[in-house]
Each structure stands twice: as structure tokens, then as C-alpha cells.
Write a structure and sequence with these properties.
It contains 19 helices and 12 strands. The protein is mainly alpha-helical and 456 residues long. Among the domains are: 46 residues; 96 residues, Arc Repressor Mutant, subunit A. The chain has a 3-stranded parallel sheet. A 3-stranded antiparallel sheet has the order 4-5-8. Helix 8 crosses helix 10, helix 14 crosses helix 17 and helix 16 crosses helix 18. Bound molecules: glutamic acid. Glutamic acid binds next to loops.
Length: 456
């Protein structure tokens, strides 16, 4: 049997971190088993579905390298087939017409709310045999006094008493099928063998298992991944910033970093921290997915991103960041040296870009409050000496700069740190930077002296 997984997003928003992780796990599971990974766009909600969002889902998945097999399935194209299935269930007495009006349902809902009980449709029309010329919805006849068993590959066995379940709607009064029916119909149509999705779908799964059964179909295997939580322990939502894949792409995060982070967010393989795509495919297993919600950690993601960022070769680095500086304006060797120096020593992408910016700036740079403090704490006599001695350097190389600064420190009974810090503060405006000797070399003598005089 060929393993077939699917990712089935609703195009009602940009692809977010949680969706991308679901897609990744489906992709890896399929590839590991030499199976197929399919993509289905669940666009039956006409109001909220936008092609703009479908496009974003495609772009983001391709960018992450989550390429799907076969053509994309659009759920909206299968609606007729879904309606036929609802009618088939009706004819087989496995579903029924419910004539309860919206007002009646609303009232029952309010009563339940007041009694602080969850609302459940009272199965009023379940055994009614007649016909009315009135609008109706089609509801499924849940097999009562029975139980439904889910053998989840992550959560283990979960059992539900069918009497707890509502006779849910499969066809609305406007003859549109509901998600519950469409998803079962399409999973069957696409020959999906494994449904891997967030555990927010757990209650849907029981209803879907019943539908599979009523339709006489073998259900796929289910695996429910615990949701991602924010640091404060709440469900990850839009409130926690816009966690779209697109946003990370725009912030120059690397797809390999995002993939690695998402892979480890809820799954692990011993202490192994970084996985190539091939390793992820061969090592991934559903048994390794944790049962507790994973916590989203932006710092960790940044750390992983920098791991990959530091591995980029010059060509890749330029192609990622070239829109941030005018490459043609600079000598190639200088630019290469500058980019590689900052690539190595930056703690984040924004740190890197900021560094390049202050290095290339022809204007006065902004000096941070902390940097100002450092300059103020240094004796005027030392500041003067720095300028005089640096001016004397004939051959402006990082080595000569280092020798000169060490001399000043030694002659004045100071640590090199006490000399380097005010210089760093003056030329970068910051209290951290790559090696100060290298920074000064790259800045050039003229520019260095200009910045020192201005700041001191
Ligand atoms: N379209 C559903 C969603 O975006 C997913 C359905 C499924 O995976 O079964 O949440």
C-alpha cells in the first residue's frame, strides 16, 4: 500500500508556523515511507477563502521545500460529489432531514448557555418519517449506544461514547456540504492513508470516523499533533504577532532554519539539533512526536537561523542580502571581507544588517546611550592619544592597528579593553561589534579618524 498524506489548509489567511509544521510532518512521513504528499485547498467557505491566501500557501510551501505530489485539489470543485453522498446517506436512512429553524436552535443554544451546559442538537427530527415543503438541513444519524475508538498514532487509543456526539450537519439548507462531509469525501477520493493534523481536530475525527463507517469506507489512520503554545502557555494565535512563514522570509530567515526549528518543535531524535533534509526524512517517525504542546521560542528560532546563516557562502550571502546595499559601488574584495566579517560575528540578521549599514554609512552614525557612557568614562588624555597614535599608522592594516592599540594600553597601564571600548563606541555607535581591529581596517583610516574626532 502506498502511503498517502495530505496537507489541507483553508485559504483564509497566510500560511502560519503551525500550518507549516503540519505540512512538514505530512511531507516527511510520506517521503520516509516512499509515499505521496498531496495538497488540498479547502476553499468551500466562499466568504473567507481568498486566492491571495492560496497563492501565499503555495509560495511558502515551495520556499520551505515542501513540494507536493500530483496536482492541487480544490475542495470546491468536488461539491456535487459531496452533495450526492449526503443524499445517499439520506436514502439509506443513515441521515435525516432536520426542519428545526434557526430561531429554535438559537433559543436552545441560549438555554444551554444559561444553564452553563454545552449546546447539543436534541435529535428532534431524527425519527420523523414525513416530508415538509420547508427548508431543512441534513444531519447524520449517529449510531447511538455504541462507542467510537480512535487508534491515534501519537495519542494512543481514545474512546468516545457515541451518545455524547451531536447528530451533526452534513448538508446545509442552501445545499452546501459542511467541512465534516467534504473532508471525509475528499480524503477517500484522494486515497489518503494517513491524516496528520493538529489536535484541535480531535472531536472532528470521531465524527469523521463515524462518517467513514456509515459510508462503508475504511478510514485512514489518524495522528494528532499537540498544538503549539506561546511562551506564556496560551494557544499560539495572531495575538502573539503575525507568525506567518512569509513574515519570516521577509525578515531573511532561511528555509532550512525554519524547517529545522519546526521539525524539532514537537519531535526529537535524541539530542540531535540539526537535520539535513535527507536526515529528517530518514529519521522522522510519528512515535517521536511529543504528547504535550510545544512552546514556540523565537530566541531558539533565531539561534537556529544564525547557525544556517553563518554557513552561507559569499554568493548565497549576497543573493540573500544584496538588496540592502549597493554592491556595484564597492570594491569586490572590500565588500567580501566586510560581509564575511559581519556574517561571522552577528547575533541576528538585523544585527548583521545594522552592522553593514554603519560600516558603509557616509553620514554621522547614531551613538547609543550606552556607547556614549563608555566614551564619557574614558579620560580625555587617552582619547587624544588614540587619535594621535592612529593617525601615525602608515600602513592601515588590522595588524598594525592592533599593535598600536596594545601599545597605548601598555604605556598607560590600561587593559586593551579600556582602549578598544571607547573606539568601538565612537566608530560603530554600539558596545558590541566584530574585532575592533578589523572594523577599523574596513572603515579606512580617514573614516575612522573622522568618526573618532566627532564622537570624542
Ligand atoms: N482545513 C482544515 C484547517 O485548515 C484542516 C482540515 C484537515 O486537516 O482535516 O484547519
Amino acid at each position: 500500500m502506498t502511503i498517502i498524506t495530505r496537507f489541507a489548509p483553508s485559504p483564509t489567511g497566510l500560511l502560519h508556523i503551525g500550518g507549516a509544521r503540519t505540512a512538514l510532518y505530512n511531507y516527511l512521513y510520506a517521503k520516509k515511507n516512499n509515499g505521496k504528499f498531496k495538497l488540498r485547498i479547502e476553499d468551500t467557505d466562499r466568504e473567507r477563502s481568498k486566492s491571495l491566501f492560496s497563492e501565499d500557501i503555495f509560495h511558502s510551501m515551495k520556499w520551505l521545500g515542501l513540494n507536493w505530489d500530483h496536482e492541487i485539489i480544490y475542495q470546491s470543485k468536488n461539491i456535487k460529489y459531496h452533495i450526492n453522498l449526503a443524499e445517499k446517506l439520506l436514502n439509506e436512512d443513515k441521515a435525516y432531514k432536520c426542519y428545526s429553524t434557526i430561531e429554535e436552535i438559537e433559543e436552545a443554544r441560549n438555554i444551554a448557555k444559561k444553564a452553563k451546559k454545552p449546546y447539543k442538537y436534541d435529535r428532534k427530527w431524527r425519527d420523523f418519517k414525513g416530508e415538509f415543503e420547508k427548508p431543512y438541513v441534513i444531519r447524520v444519524k449517529i449510531p447511538l449506544n455504541d462507542k467510537t475508538i480512535l487508534k491515534d498514532k501519537i495519542l494512543g487509543e481514545v474512546v468516545i461514547d457515541n451518545n455524547e456526539l451531536e447528530d451533526f450537519i452534513i448538508l446545509r439548507s442552501d445545499k452546501t456540504p459542511t467541512y465534516m462531509l467534504s473532508v471525509v469525501a475528499d480524503d477517500k477520493l484522494m486515497e489518503v492513508t494517513d491524516v496528520i493534523r493538529g489536535d484541535d481536530h480531535l472531536t472532528n475525527t470521531f465524527k469523521q470516523l463515524i462518517l467513514f463507517d456509515l459510508l462503508g469506507w475504511k478510514p485512514p489512520s489518524f495522528s494528532h499533533i499537540p498544538l503549539i503554545h506561546s511562551q506564556d502557555g496560551n494557544k499560539l494565535s495572531k495575538r502573539h504577532g503575525d507568525l506567518s512563514v512569509k513574515q519570516y522570509k521577509e525578515k531573511l530567515f532561511l528555509p532550512s532554519a525554519l524547517i529545522n526549528y519546526l521539525l524539532r518543535l514537537g519531535w526529537g531524535h535524541g539530542n540531535k539539533e540539526f537535520f539535513s533534509k535527507e536526515e529528517a526524512i530518514s529519521l522522522f517517525d510519528l512515535a517521536g512526536v511529543g504528547k504535550a504542546p510545544a512552546k514556540f521560542d523565537e530566541k531558539k528560532l533565531n539561534h537556529i537561523n544564525m547557525h544556517y546563516f553563518k554557513k552561507l557562502n559569499l554568493k548565497e550571502l549576497l543573493s540573500l542580502t544584496s538588496s540592502y546595499y549597493k554592491i556595484d559601488k564597492y570594491k569586490k574584495s572590500f565588500l567580501n571581507d566586510l560581509l564575511l566579517t559581519f556574517q561571522n560575528r552577528s547575533e541576528s540578521i538585523s544585527d548583521y544588517l545594522l552592522g553593514i549599514k554603519y560600516m558603509l554609512s557616509k553620514e554621522d552614525i547614531k551613538i547609543s546611550e550606552k556607547a556614549k557612557e563608555v566614551i564619557k568614562e574614558t579620560k580625555k588624555q587617552i582619547l587624544d592619544l588614540i587619535i594621535i597614535d592612529l593617525k601615525d599608522i602608515k600602513n592601515w592594516t588590522s595588524l598594525n592597528i592592533e599593535i598600536t592599540l596594545k601599545e597605548i594600553a601598555k604605556n598607560n597601564n590600561l587593559k586593551l579593553f579600556n582602549i578598544a571600548s571607547p573606539i568601538r563606541a565612537a566608530v560603530t555607535g554600539k558596545i558590541h561589534s566584530p574585532s575592533i581591529f578589523k572594523v577599523l581596517e574596513l572603515l579606512g583610516k580617514e573614516n575612522t579618524l573622522k568618526r573618532l574626532k566627532k564622537a570624542f
